[in-house]
Amino acid sequence: MSDMKLVTLRKMKAGQSGKIIEIHGGQGLVNRLDALGIRTGGTIKKLSSMVMRGPVTVQCGRTCVAIGCGMADKIIVELDSNKDENPPDGQS
């Protein structure tokens, strides 16, 4: 039961999804992410990211947004254990 996998949003692979457990940041960061639809307890899916320190593109509900890698480092996600990393149609 305690086999949940916690990672930062930045360390997730493209196509992985999970539940936002915690946001490590001040009220300003929490409010900014909340305005984008990224909230503790919500589900999030990483769509893409740059190799070094570029933006991270995510999907929350029906909304797609890009956030900086610094913000992505402060979002702690519990990965879905029953979801596959690849899209269902086999695209990578």
Describe the protein in words.
This protein has helices at 27-35, 69-72; strands at 6-8, 17-23, 43-49, 56-60, 63-67, 75-79. It has a single domain (6-79), classed as SH3 type barrels (Roll), CATH 2.30.30. Mean pLDDT is 87; it is low at 87-92. It starts with 5 loop residues before the first strand and ends in a 13-residue tail after the last strand. With 92 residues, it is α+β, with helices and mostly antiparallel strands. The protein has two helices and six strands, in the order ββαβββαβ. The protein has a six-stranded antiparallel beta sheet.
In CATH terms, what is the fold-level topology? SH3 type barrels
Q: What share of residues is helical? A: 10-25%
> Can you tell me the CATH superfamily?
Ferrous iron transport protein A (FeoA)
List the uncertain runs: 87-92
Characteristics of this structure?
92 residues, alpha+beta, SH3 type barrels, 6-stranded antiparallel beta sheet, 14% helix, globular
